[in-house]
């Protein structure tokens, strides 16, 4: 049997190791120093495990008492069951994600649940999911070479458990023990051209691209520098030719705020040319499969690769970095800034820290942004 002192003095090792208190009660010591009480028990000859809490928040005596009560409940005719992870994740999606998240974000969450998380822990009760179970799931994902996905899946599991704790479905959150246990992520970097000569080469290549709808999508991306998902999901109903604006509704935006994109003369021309091909459809850039969906998320990237721009040179998201760099560096003859940082950030639709102000400022700096978007379109033309 363990003593309280032994529990306090237990040192972390390279791998998780367990200290046994007997009768199935284990103190799991993680490589990051975290200590968690795990109870082993058997049902119909099959070993099960449940997490009781962390040490020292749960003392040795309290862990023993909790283990005793848990085993006592097992002998009852009806064993109270905690909901499964799948049931809880479904409730979490419906109440926390679907009401106010962007469609593309929801699709990614659902895909990761379906492909990586639910096949492993979906049918397990929340009480059965220990840190080692989640770590094993993440290790399988890492083995596929998708390190970022492993981290995101761990994050999703953590969010579901936090929801479960808030709704009295669980008492502990297993992913908090895994800090530093996964492989280090590579911070995502969206390659973007910032050199004038290279930007000129890009614009010449776009002008000569043989497929009209894709060429228009490339020009549209360059002239609006909106996020790729926002460009792909652009609808003709959102284009106001008279007012020269593209009005993107809040539900399509990453920050869930309506966004106005002033249309330069060049962008109006692109849209008029495009309207002769897709103007009778919902999307500006419909899928070539004619299945009612917008253009594939890979179309722009494939076009850039076909034009000779590698992944480390330019990406579909890189039009944003390209525009941000040029606009922030633009100067008047007296070397003062040509455009305010606020107007640039507003046009990039970055997060507004002041949430009250953010609710009212989607059209803020619009006069300056109109001039800025026309200047930028003219600047790109001057390169070609």
Would you give the CATH topology of the largest domain? hpI Integrase, Chain A
The spatial strand order of the largest sheet comes to 1-2-3-4
How many E strands? 7
- Could you estimate the helical fraction of the residues in percent? 40-55%
CA distance, first residue to last residue: 78 Å
Major β-sheet profile: 4 strands, antiparallel
Q: What is the residue-mean pLDDT, rounded to a whole number?
A: 87
Query: What percent strand?
Result: 5-15%
Under the CATH scheme, the architecture of the largest domain is Orthogonal Bundle
Task: Work out the helix count.
Answer: 15
Provide the number of structural domains. Answer: 3
What is the C-level CATH assignment of the largest domain? Mainly Alpha
List the helices and strands and how they pair.
Blueprint: H1 4-9, E1 17-22, E2 25-29, E3 35-43, E4 46-55, H2 60-74, H3 85-97, H4 103-121, H5 131-143, H6 147-166, H7 196-208, H8 212-224, H9 228-232, E5 239-240, E6 245-248, E7 259-262, H10 265-278, H11 299-306, H12 318-329, H13 341-347, H14 355-358, H15 366-383
Antiparallel strand pairs: 1-2, 2-3, 3-4, 5-6, 6-7
Description:
- By secondary structure, the chain is of the alpha+beta class.
- The protein has three domains: 4-74, Integrase, DNA-binding domain (Double Stranded RNA Binding Domain), CATH 3.30.160.390; 85-178, Tyrosine recombinase, N-terminal domain (DNA polymerase, domain 1, Orthogonal Bundle), CATH 1.10.150; 196-383, Intergrase catalytic core (hpI Integrase, Chain A), CATH 1.10.443.10.
- Helices cover 47% and strands 10% of the residues.
- The protein has 15 helices and seven strands.
- It has a four-stranded antiparallel sheet, with helices on one face. A three-stranded antiparallel sheet has the order 5-6-7.
- A hairpin with a 4-residue loop joins β5 (239-240) and β6.
